[in-house]
Design brief:
mainly alpha
Length: about 140
């Protein structure tokens, strides 16, 4: 074997090794994405179960409230729990538009309109604070 043949064989072996490594890494990546999707679905399922439990608990609380009201009780002590009423105050807004300006909060958000900026830059406009950038994004099929 000549020197150039040895180099060619070595490069070919390296290419095959790299191809195998990349394939293994991408296969593991796909496995992780599949796991992430399964976890997301499980999160949604558990969130739905949590919400149902919260609604049931709230309904039971309302039931106890109704029972105490019907019995005209302000306090009830059981072996494990004590149920009673306490006074509290809260603000009820009856007409938000009638409130004086001093009692209103204004929320404002400003975000760059990337679609409009991209269109303007592609049309040749110069926009301070923005530029078109060409990237090489990895695409896996």
């Amino acid at each position: 074997m000549q020197g150039s043949d040895v180099i060619a064989d070595t490069l070919e072996a390296l290419d095959e090794a790299l191809e195998g490594k990349v394939e293994s890494v991408l296969h593991f990546r796909q496995h992780l994405l599949n796991e992430a999707a399964a976890l997301k679905a499980e999160e949604q399922r558990l969130a739905e179960r949590r919400k149902l439990r919260e609604v049931k608990a709230k309904r039971l609380e309302e039931y106890v409230d109704e029972c105490l009201n019907v019995a005209d009780l302000k306090k009830l002590e059981t072996t494990l729990y004590t149920v009673s009423y306490r006074k509290s105050t809260s603000v009820e807004i009856t007409d938000a538009e009638a409130l004086p300006v001093g009692f209103l909060r204004t929320k404002t958000t400003t975000d760059p309109d990337k679609t409009a900026i991209s269109k303007a830059l592609k049309a040749g406009e110069v926009i301070a604070g923005a530029q078109l950038v060409t990237k090489a994004n990895l695409q896996i099929k």
